[in-house]
Amino acid sequence: MTRLSRPAKSHAGIGAGKAVLLLLGALCVVLMLSRHAFGAVPAASLPNTPNLPLPALNVAVGAAEGPRDVVLTLQIVALVTVISMAPAILLMLTSFTRILIVLGFVRSAMGLQQTPPNQVISSLALFLTVFTMTPVWSNIYENALVPYVQEELPAGEAFERAVTPLRQFMLAQTRDKELSLMVRLSGDPQPANQDAVRTVVLIPAYILSELKTSFQMGVVIYIPFIVIDMIVACILMSMGMMMLPPSMISLPFKILLFVMADGWSLLISSVVTSFRL
After folding, report:
1. Is 147 exposed, middle or buried (0-12, 13-18, 19+ CB in 10 A)?
2. What are the tens digits of pLDDT across the range 101-114?
3. In this predicted model, what pLDDT tens digit does every residue of 56-86 receive, in sequence order?
4. Are 104 and 121 in contact (CB under 8 A)?
5. Nearest to 101 by CA among 214, 14, 202
6. How far apart are CA 17 and CA 12, in angstroms?
7. Could you give the CA distance from residue 93 to residue 99 in angstroms, rounded to a whole number?
8. Cβ atoms of 219 and 241 closer than 8 Å
């Protein structure tokens, strides 16, 4: 009779178990040290710290005493909602989308799978986004945030001043075709000018325009690398080496072409100057 063998434990499960045990051990050590530091040592023995007050944090839910408490609660919920949407705002309402897609096209066109790594490409796209969006953010900071913090503007007017530079940036990059499409899908009447376009209509039109522009730039980037692949494939077929993958031979030539043409400088310059500010 065949004995059923016990399934072997996976390395991932062992690693996760060790990580949990180490975390629990570290937590216990921290608790013991904190107890020794704050509980075992008398307060009188601490030099120059008599009756040291410790802060306390109380979170409670109760009935509102007036309309002002309700408004404050709604403001807090709105603030938390905006903070949770901050990554989407950074990704979709700035130049990050176009830059990241173009950098991904370059890596795919060269035939490199994980070089540069995703972390490097994302970090480069993030810092280029900061470089590109600095004039817009400086305008928002000087004309909206600073007057609001100094209590020179109400919240509503400060919000309008903050949205205006961002709208101008998005309108400068948005194509008329995508903007007309979103206006038609929203059911709004044809706007008389750009200021009449609602922000909720402008945002998806801007994202569609960014996708279209980045894909067009990616096609242009692909052309020289495709030519190299075709030349190498024709040479290998004429030599009878049909079993040899052309990408293996063309990869060094594509990297050499990219380096000799100063590809990174040309690429970054083209991407940054493609934004109309």
Report:
1. middle
2. 999 898 888 888 77
3. 555 555 555 655 555 667 777 777 777 777 7
4. yes
5. 214
6. 9
7. 13
8. no
Instruction: Tokens for 57, please give them.
Output: 């944090």
Which helix (H) or strand (E) is 79 found in, with range?
helix 67-84
Token pair in block for residue 243: 């079993």
Counting every residue written for the chain, the total comes to: 277
The answer to whether residues 148 and 155 touch, using CB atoms and an 8 Å cutoff, is yes
156 burial via Cβ count (<10 Å: 0-12, 13-18, 19+): exposed
Cis peptide bond upstream of 154, omega within 30: no
The set of residues, in sequence order, having a beta carbon less than 8 Å from that of 250 and lying 6+ positions away, is 111, 228, 229, 231, 232, 233
DSSP code per residue over 120-185: HHHHHHHHHHHHHHHHHHHHHIIIIIHHHHTTSS-HHHHHHHHHHHHHHHHHHH--HHHHHHHHHH
**Where do we find the tokens 């190498």?**
232
Q: Which amino acid is at 78?
A: A
Cα–Cα distances in Å, from 40 out to 33, 35, 43, 51, 54?
Answer: 10, 7, 9, 16, 17
Classify residue 182 as exposed, middle or buried by CB count within 10 Å of its CB (0-12, 13-18, 19+). Answer: buried
